[in-house]
Task: inverse folding
């Protein structure tokens, strides 16, 4: 009986501990929409990091958690990008590093770019086909992830400033190119 | 019962603490910065026992480490980045230069027959330094010109010229290795030859108007001395290149 209790307590603490590494529910802040990007500061990075306290030996690092959420309706699709404060981490919430913050926010911009690309593709569909819509979303989510990795690799987490600036220009221009798809809702076969 | 609980906690503790294994060297890191060089040089210099072999290119286990150590991209990624400020890049160049001076003494061991024990590594570190110095002195000169009231003033021209002279003299030290030819195998001599081809041509292209008389004199002396055909070829090529850059003197001038 005591063994069972011990194991249960242990499992409970493990689950709590694991959950905390994913979402800091002790200092929770709800996900933010892309429209709020200009108001995001490092104070919004509330995630906890228990093990990886350095990135290639650099303790002054941050990472951002973003997501693409969607909802399929009869003749339309609602798709949005979100920033998750309680799953995003910075070594010091009071850090004053415009370059580091900018690098992280461009990850959010990449997510938004792919959300707009999803909306563009969906608007070109002739009919509502749930399987096809999900297929498009999943494929573009994979592409978005690949782009995020390439961005981090080539800018080396903003260390290579020239590349960082190039990416910023490129992403801004692509976002601008997809500015017709800012609204969260897109209608199928929309013209 | 108590033992089981202790074992369970111990297992859990091990699982949690062994999640991440830190490598002694940051081999997966794309670019090494000054801190990395500082740590790696210290580790190689003082972490290797006197009878242990240093990291080399021919050892599959340490090949990657020496490749990273001598990878010019580590400084080029900062020094060539025009988005960064000139002062900042100059400071980083100076820090790299200091690290390179530390690196220089890692692989200079000579055996009882006066041969270099780590000739390939020694020359690659040397080549790393030559390329670094080319950028370091260029950035220094550019900063002097940028900050001066009049970039064409005699004092600025003289300072830039003097700095370039120091750079040329530093590079001539590389040619001194030809005096140590007997300490190298043919592989080492070929590496020196390619170092001349690469770095000295870059030097002259960077400062085409500089007076290279000292260098030319050294090249002529080394041409007479070297037994290596490849070095001879490289020196001849260099000599011709320097001469091709000389401004032709005006004929019949009375001035």
Result:
């Amino acid at each position: 009986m005591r063994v069972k209790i011990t194991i249960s307590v242990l499992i409970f603490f493990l689950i709590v501990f694991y959950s905390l590494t994913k979402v800091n529910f002790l200092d929770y802040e709800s996900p933010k929409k892309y429209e709020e990007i200009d108001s995001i500061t490092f104070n919004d990075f509330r995630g906890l990091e228990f093990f990886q306290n350095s990135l290639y030996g650099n303790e002054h690092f941050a990472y951002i958690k973003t997501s693409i959420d969607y909802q399929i309706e009869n003749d339309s699709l609602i798709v949005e990008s979100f920033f998750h404060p309680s799953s995003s981490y910075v070594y010091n919430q009071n850090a004053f590093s415009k370059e580091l913050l900018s690098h992280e926010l461009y990850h959010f911009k990449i997510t938004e770019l792919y959300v707009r690309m999803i909306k563009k593709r969906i608007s070109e569909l002739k009919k509502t086909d749930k399987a096809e819509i999900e297929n498009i979303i999943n494929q573009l989510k994979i592409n978005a992830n690949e782009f995020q990795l390439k961005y981090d690799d080539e800018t080396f987490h903003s260390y290579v400033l020239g590349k960082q600036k190039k990416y910023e220009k490129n992403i801004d221009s692509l976002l601008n190119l997809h500015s017709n798809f800012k609204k969260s809702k897109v209608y199928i076969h929309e013209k | 019962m108590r033992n089981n609980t202790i074992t369970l906690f111990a297992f859990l503790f091990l699982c949690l603490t062994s999640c991440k294994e830190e490598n002694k060297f940051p081999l997966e890191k794309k670019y090494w910065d000054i801190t990395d060089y500082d740590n790696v040089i210290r580790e190689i210099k003082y972490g290797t026992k006197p009878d242990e072999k240093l990291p080399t290119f021919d050892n599959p286990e340490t090949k990657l480490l020496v490749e990273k150590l001598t990878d010019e991209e580590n400084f080029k990624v900062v020094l060539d980045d025009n988005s960064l400020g000139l002062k900042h890049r100059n400071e980083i160049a100076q820090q790299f230069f200091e690290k390179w001076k530390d690196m220089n003494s890692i692989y200079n061991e000579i055996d009882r027959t006066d041969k270099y024990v780590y000739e390939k590594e020694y020359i690659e570190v040397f080549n790393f330094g030559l390329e670094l110095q080319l950028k370091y002195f260029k950035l220094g000169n550019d900063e002097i010109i940028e900050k001066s009231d009049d970039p064409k003033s005699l004092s600025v021209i003289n300072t830039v010229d003097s700095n370039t002279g120091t750079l040329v003299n530093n590079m001539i030290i590389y040619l001194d290795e030809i005096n140590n030819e007997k300490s190298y195998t043919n592989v080492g001599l070929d590496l020196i030859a390619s170092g001349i081809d690469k770095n000295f041509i870059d030097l002259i292209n960077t400062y085409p108007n500089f007076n290279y008389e000292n260098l030319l004199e050294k090249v002529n002396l080394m041409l007479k001395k070297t037994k290596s055909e490849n070095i001879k070829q490289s020196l001849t090529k260099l000599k011709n290149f320097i001469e091709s850059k000389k401004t032709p003197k005006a004929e019949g001038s009375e001035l």
